[in-house]
């Protein structure tokens, strides 16, 4: 197989991985003043509204919860994010879970030292969750942050269960990218 053929194969697999991602973004809406953060769920407890660190000097663009997992979708709720983080990476439950911009979920074993609790949560963590308008899912560069405080369970404090196969949703683009690399390796051998 020629270099050109291998390059075409790689590009087609790359385009497939991009097209498999959810590209329709629902813009966040400001939550009603009466909406408050979910206190506990899935073994996590609410710890406040914390700043995102991508724009903080000397952070090198790292996120407040980097090195873990992330997911974004138009049906995000606090419970689904916490269930995703409780599922963990390679069986290791993530210590922190943070929601941002109404539809983003970040999980990490550590919280960046550049992230600080914002003094007025109601001024920063203002977006309703795209999947449940009665829950708070962060703000622009602001995380509604949860800390793992007890063993997680399959149901949240509000009685709901997450039937979403998060390993498929979150790992989909990684799967296609890995497949592309494998195919490129096979093409190089041929």
From TrEMBL:
Domain of life: Eukaryota
Main location: membrane
Protein name, UniProt field: WSC domain-containing protein
Keywords, comma-separated and alphabetical: Glycoprotein, Membrane, Signal, Transmembrane, Transmembrane helix
Pfam family, one: WSC
Domain WSC: 43-149
Subcellular localization: Membrane
Bilayer topology term: Single-pass membrane protein
